[in-house]
Design brief:
Blueprint (H helix, E strand, L loop, with lengths): L4 H12 L5 H8 L3 E5 L3 E6 L2 H10 L1 H12 L4 E6 L50 H12 L8 E5 L5 H15 L5 E5 H14 L2 H9 L3 E5 L8 H16 L3 E6 L11 H7 L3 E5 L4 H14 L6 H10 L4 H18 L5 H12 L12 H12 L13 H18 L3 H7 L5 H17 L1 H17 L5
Parallel strand pairs: 2-3, 4-7, 4-8, 5-6, 6-7
Antiparallel strand pairs: 1-2
């Protein structure tokens, strides 16, 4: 019998559910899916990178042991954020496969599927006054490609749902018309592909790849600014697809006329179809987004907690989702139920003052200073080369808190501590996470720093 990646992962999750608390299982493991399987590796996708890192740190040993028990041999587990292109891995079998060739006729084979996030669908998108036009236009395009709005140009700030809508178009078209030749690419990737083609002398193949598509989805076209050769190539690709009545969908952080460094002929073509904006969600939409996320992911969030998050996170949908994830992480770390008090304590530190508060947000230096004060050392000792115990532990705590509260990259954290390597940072973060599980004294010290930072953030707890 041959096991697919999905079948194997379903068995692993079914077994893990008995060993993992129900809330933790619903929060961290239930939203995952396996996407590739080889003789040595199983690739599992998670909703966000934070999920991947948390699962790898907290559940990797358990999941690897279950996988080995199910499969009969050890397998490497790789966790990553969904939306990345899946690696090409050979299938794995528990027994010898039949030698006969049952493959369908090559002429009937489906074209390669673009790297779309399958969670980004229309039924998972919350519609409000801020995105009603954009959502309606995207649904119209998905139902009748290259008929009503071509091109469709979506614009708005970061984390407001443009990419979600673009993926939803692709997912619906491919579901209803699976033989559609589609490509999803960022403008940066388009540029990189062009550079590679020029260097390798494969420009004709590059042009065929993009100009023979039925559906072209291009994210962040504002990154084409100032790239003259790329704009030239994109201009001809756009014309070829438009003349052939193929659907084009584009996103940007600004409307076409506000894109400096872009050729006038490109701006003109971007405006041929429909230009729709996606604005910052209002309070009612933020509430609806949080309720839907809680329902879809099986999360237990009380009305007061949801209301607090909706009032605190006003910048984007991504900020809302990030706040929920960080609240869940804080709850798991401190072994506390999610209450209003916990949400106020956790999110005030993580998010800083509300967007309408004139006081500034927390910085890495704020966290380093608070840790240094708590441990009775000078702040510059944290960035020094000293490795004595009185400095090493608070340094690791400071790294951990900067990672947890500000979600700063490992490389940037290393830069804040005298240019230390990212491997040193991740070792420090994981060590503190492990110590907090059993060391009540350290946990008390860390919570005291949290409280101090919350006061600096301007919220009375």
């Amino acid at each position: 019998m041959e096991l697919t990646a999905s079948e194997l992962w379903s068995r692993v999750l079914a077994s893990a559910q008995a060993d993992v608390p129900e809330q933790s299982y619903r929060t961290w493991l239930a939203p995952t899916r396996a996407v590739a399987l080889s003789d040595s590796e199983l690739v599992v996708e998670t909703p966000q990178q934070f999920h991947a890192e948390w699962i790898e740190d907290k559940f990797a040993d358990l999941l690897m042991a279950i996988t080995e028990r199910v499969l009969g041999r050890r397998l490497r587990l790789t966790f990553r954020e969904s939306g990345e292109p899946a690696p090409v891995l050979p299938s794995v079998s528990l027994s010898l496969l039949d030698e006969r060739d049952d493959r369908p006729d090559a002429s009937l084979a489906l074209p390669p599927r673009p790297s779309l996030n399958e969670r980004y669908t229309f039924d998972r998108f919350v519609v409000g006054n801020d995105n009603q036009l954009a959502n309606a236009a995207c649904q119209a395009v998905a139902n009748k490609p290259a008929t009503l709005y071509n091109p469709l140009f979506l614009y708005g700030g970061v984390g407001l749902g443009k990419t979600h809508l673009m993926h939803a178009i692709g997912n619906q078209i491919l579901e209803s018309m699976p033989h559609t030749r589609a490509v999803y690419v960022s403008s940066e990737q388009f540029t990189n592909d062009l550079i590679t083609a020029i260097q390798g002398g494969t420009t004709p193949a590059f042009r065929r790849r993009y100009r023979e598509m039925d559906l072209l989805l291009v994210d962040d076209v504002h990154f084409l600014e100032g790239k003259e050769r790329t704009q030239e190539e994109f201009f001809h690709t756009f014309n070829a697809l438009y003349d052939a009545q193929r659907q084009i969908v584009l996103t940007s952080d600004r409307p076409p006329k506000e894109l400096p460094g872009l050729e006038a002929r490109l701006i003109s073509r971007f405006e041929w179809g429909l230009v729709a904006d996606v604005r910052v969600p209002d309070y009612e939409t933020r509430l609806a987004i949080l309720r839907k996320k809680a329902h879809d992911d099986g999360l237990t969030l009380g009305p007061e907690v949801i209301d607090f998050i909706a009032h605190s996170c006003t910048a984007s949908v991504r900020e809302l989702e990030g706040a929920v994830i960080k609240l869940l992480a804080y709850s798991s770390l401190t072994h506390q139920e999610i209450t209003m008090e916990l949400a106020r304590r956790a999110l005030t530190v993580m998010l800083g003052p509300r967007s309408d508060d004139p006081r500034r947000r927390l910085t890495p230096d704020d966290i380093k200073n608070a840790v240094a004060k708590r441990w009775g050392i000078r702040p510059d000792a944290l960035t020094s080369k000293r490795r004595t115990k009185d400095v090493t532990l608070p340094r690791q705590v400071a790294m951990y808190l900067i990672r947890e509260i500000l979600d700063t990259s490992l490389v940037r954290i290393g830069e804040h501590f005298g240019g230390r390597d990212h491997s040193t940072v991740i070792h420090s973060v994981r060590k503190i996470e492990e110590m907090l599980q059993n060391d009540t004294e350290l946990r008390g010290e860390v919570e005291a720093v949290h409280a101090e930072l919350a006061r600096r953030g301007g919220e009375t707890l």
